[in-house]
Amino acid sequence: MSTEPPQYPPPDDDPFKKQPPQQPPQPPQGGGSPYDTPPPGGGSPYGTPPPPYGGDPYGGGAGGLGGPDPLAGMPPLADSGKRVLARIIDMILVGVVVWLLTWLFGTSEYDIDPDKVNTGRSFGQSLLAALLYIAYDTYLISRTGQTLGKKWLGMRVANLNDGATPTVSTALARAAVLWLPFAFCCACIWTAICGGWSFFDKPYKQGLHDKAAKTVVVSA
């Protein structure tokens, strides 16, 4: 009889037994991640792709970033050519008054020193012109939004944000930007630049004085 101990086969759960390598899961037919559930209709599982470059992801509108258009509900913007004609009418009307007042207060007793008189008259006339033009614009624009020239040609000044008639402070700021340089330094050049800006400005056809006061000119 043998004295050797009996031999038993090793158990199947032997931790030292070499296990075969596991294979990674295979993706389903047609490609894509095995962890994604395709949405109904065959769309991308990651949602709608972003808009192409140059598109506006916030929506259109003149207000920008999807904001409301300030001109919504207002009459159409006034034609820039008609605005120039209305301004010429106003300049003639007030200019006649300035000339009459200058002539009325220009006395001959100051002719003793022509150089000083000419300088004084020039400054006095410029100051008078500035005051009258600013007062004319401020008073009429703050009341109805219309100077006489604008009224005759069917247009008015309105606040850009709500279309209301400008307040006295808004009308004063608008008039000062327009008429102070006109009266004291560069009448023709400044008028052409300030008013002519509306021919090129987009989208509100604003002159420089409109931009300063945040106003627009619309059809009445």
TrEMBL record:
<feature type="domain" description="RDD">
    <location>
        <begin position="78"/>
        <end position="214"/>
    </location>
</feature>
<dbReference type="InterPro" id="IPR051791">
    <property type="entry name" value="Pra-immunoreactive"/>
</dbReference>
<feature type="compositionally biased region" description="Pro residues">
    <location>
        <begin position="36"/>
        <end position="54"/>
    </location>
</feature>
<dbReference type="Pfam" id="PF06271">
    <property type="entry name" value="RDD"/>
</dbReference>
<feature type="compositionally biased region" description="Gly residues">
    <location>
        <begin position="56"/>
        <end position="67"/>
    </location>
</feature>
<keyword id="KW-1133">Transmembrane helix</keyword>
<feature type="transmembrane region" description="Helical">
    <location>
        <begin position="125"/>
        <end position="142"/>
    </location>
</feature>
<keyword id="KW-1003">Cell membrane</keyword>
<keyword id="KW-0812">Transmembrane</keyword>
<keyword id="KW-0472">Membrane</keyword>
<feature type="compositionally biased region" description="Pro residues">
    <location>
        <begin position="1"/>
        <end position="10"/>
    </location>
</feature>
<dbReference type="GO" id="GO:0005886">
    <property type="term" value="C:plasma membrane"/>
</dbReference>
<feature type="region of interest" description="Disordered">
    <location>
        <begin position="1"/>
        <end position="67"/>
    </location>
</feature>
<protein>
    <submittedName>
        <fullName>RDD family protein</fullName>
    </submittedName>
</protein>
<dbReference type="InterPro" id="IPR010432">
    <property type="entry name" value="RDD"/>
</dbReference>
<feature type="transmembrane region" description="Helical">
    <location>
        <begin position="177"/>
        <end position="200"/>
    </location>
</feature>
<feature type="transmembrane region" description="Helical">
    <location>
        <begin position="84"/>
        <end position="105"/>
    </location>
</feature>
